[in-house]
Amino acid sequence: MVRLDRINSQQVFQQARVVVFHYMERCPAGAEPCGVVLQGSKGRVVFEQPVLLPDEQFIPMDLLRGRPTARPASRLRMPRTR
Description:
- The protein is about 30% helix and about 20% strand.
- The longest helix has 18 residues.
- The chain is extended.
- It contains two helices and three strands, in the order H-E-E-E-H.
- By secondary structure, the chain is α+β, with helices and mostly antiparallel strands.
- The protein has one domain.
- A three-stranded antiparallel β-sheet has the order 2-1-3.
């Protein structure tokens, strides 16, 4: 798992998203990856939990997708009674 306190997470997530984007561009009907393994400036999508080498980082797809946004509250409100 990625130790976010030891990396530049913005750069790592951006690099991992590029790897996923290239995979989806080449294989639009391909299987859904479980994450991305990064090694230096290279990366690959993986479909099973990987066994990592010491210089590799695994970024799960959950972290790359972001969090689902909650629906905004309605702006219509009942009038206040005094």
